[in-house]
Specification:
With 447 residues, the protein is an alpha/beta fold. It is built from 16 helices and 14 strands. The structure holds the ligand CCOCCOc1ccc(-c2cn(C[C@@H]3NC[C@@H](O)[C@H]3O)nn2)cc1.
Length: 447
């Protein structure tokens, strides 16, 4: 029987984010975030769900870390809620907020688990949004100042840092598509925000280096892979635009120092232009130690005139789908990681999110989520292919440790290895928890 084995020093972990799991939305001085505002606005989130309680991990983090220890992970990715640190975004520091994360980090370290800290996972302080949010360049400086406080507080304890989670979601999904907070629908605004986010990322990396913080820093774009339906140039170009929307638009400035010209031209043809000020592109270029990669889905696509933003349409090739209605495309994982390596060189890659939405429920104390096991197995095989192909992969953090608040979908989309009953907050290990535990123990699996 064929064996899939990973390097002994390969990091195995799981990921979460503050607004999705913590709850305690008004406890210990926490200020309002744009997601509190958005989720409390009727019609924005399915079933009227919000993050007021979520998984109550703010109060149950010791229980959650006990589950992580049982799982055997060596890395745990979490995010810090900016509004817990600066309730008004800037100004007065909330020491109780810092204390919570200090206790969390100490508990992780005591459990032998490496903390991976995401500084921004979408929960912008509402007071900053009231002043324009990421459209306002002042927010860039506010983010750097917030990040510096965290760097100084956790220097030596947190060794892996992520500035931004999924800048595509922060800019385009939230300000052009409009289904995430704050819910704008303006392409120029989204492009401007994407630019400001990359400046904020770069200046934060610069501050990290200036402070001489021990550890590694990167960011975590979400990427997809779109295979052209044919080798006709129009199909190839349409797929290239669709991939670049998530990938090159954010990675090229950080790793190559320029935006992809074909995307600048495409946006310009739609009357959307970037206002690049002196120093902006240099700020983005402060070198990072790794790239976090979030991958869920890919597809086959082709050119279709005037379809969507990029004259692109998906093809329904009959690939199976998750309960999020996303195509399952494991080959895309291999293809996109090889593409990233080919384009940017052998910079270390940390899979910061990969997982599947399946809404299996507890039956007689068990959750038989065989489809999630299948998804994880298929995608880990592709990661092993990448390693065999020389891709510099350092670890895999599955999304997610816990079922949690899946943004505009509320609690109806379950990604966790652990089932959460959102009425009782009872945690139940799913069968995928036990499967992943064995994978970690063996650093691989048998086919
Ligand atoms: C072009 C039109 O598109 C319409 C829907 O578009 C999307 C795209 C992407 C997502 C999406 C959701 N997730 C999972 C999260 N990653 C971060 C973590 O917080 C998880 O909860 N990743 N991507 C949702 C909707």
């Amino acid at each position: 029987m064929a064996q899939i084995r990973f390097p002994e020093d390969f990091h195995w972990g799981a990921a979460t984010a503050a607004y999705q799991i913590e709850g305690a939305w008004k406890d210990d001085g926490r200020g309002a975030s744009i997601w509190d505002t958005f989720s409390h606005t009727p019609g924005k989130v399915k079933n009227g769900d919000n993050g007021d309680v979520a998984c109550d991990s703010y109060n149950r983090y010791k229980e959650d870390i006990g589950l992580m220890k049982d799982l055997g992970i060596t890395m745990y990715r979490f995010s810090i809620a900016w509004p817990r640190i600066f309730p008004d975004g800037t100004g007065e520091l909330n020491l109780k907020g810092l204390e919570y994360y200090s206790n969390l980090v100490d508990e992780l370290l005591a459990a032998g688990i490496e903390p991976v800290c995401t500084l921004y996972h979408w929960d912008l302080p509402q007071t900053l949004q009231d002043c324009g949010g990421w459209e306002n360049r002042d927010t860039i400086d506010a983010f750097v100042a917030y990040s510096e406080i965290i760097f100084r507080e956790f220097a030596g304890r947190i060794k892996y840092w992520i500035t931004l989670n999924e800048p595509w979601c922060i800019s385009f999904l939230s300000n052009y598509v409009g289904i995430h907070a704050p819910g704008n629908r303006d392409l120029q605004l989204a492009v401007t925000i994407s630019h400001h986010l990359l400046i904020a990322h770069g200046r934060t990396v610069k501050r990290f280096r200036e402070l001489g913080i021990e550890g590694q820093i990167g960011f975590a774009p979400n990427v997809t892979w779109l295979e052209p339906y044919s080798n006709r140039k129009e199909d190839v170009d349409a797929c290239r635009r669709g991939v670049a929307y998530f990938l090159e638009w954010f990675m090229d400035p950080v790793l190559l120092g320029t935006y992809p010209q074909f995307m600048l031209d495409w946006f310009a043809a739609k009357g959307v232009n970037l206002e690049i000020q002196d120093g902006d592109m240099q700020d983005m270029r402060y070198s990072i130690d790794f790239i976090g990669i979030n991958y869920y889905t890919g597809n086959v696509g082709r050119y279709k005139q005037d379809e969507g933003l990029f004259d692109y349409e998906d093809i329904d090739t009959g690939y199976a789908k998750t309960d999020f209605d996303w195509f399952i495309c494991p080959d895309g994982f291999y293809n996109v990681l090889c593409y990233i390596t080919q384009r940017y060189g052998n910079i270390p890659l940390l899979i910061t999110e990969n997982g599947a939405c399946y809404n299996d429920e507890v039956e007689e104390g068990c959750v038989n989520d065989t489809r999630r096991i299948q998804y994880l197995k298929q995608h880990l095989i592709q990661l092993n292919r990448c390693l065999e192909s020389g891709v510099n992969l350092i670890g895999y953090l599955t999304w997610s440790l816990l079922d949690n608040f899946e943004w505009a979908e509320g609690y109806g989309k379950r990604f966790g290895l652990i089932h959460v009953d959102f009425q009782t907050l009872t945690r139940t290990r799913k069968n995928s928890f036990y499967w992943y535990k064995e994978v970690i123990c063996k650093s691989g699996f048998d086919l």
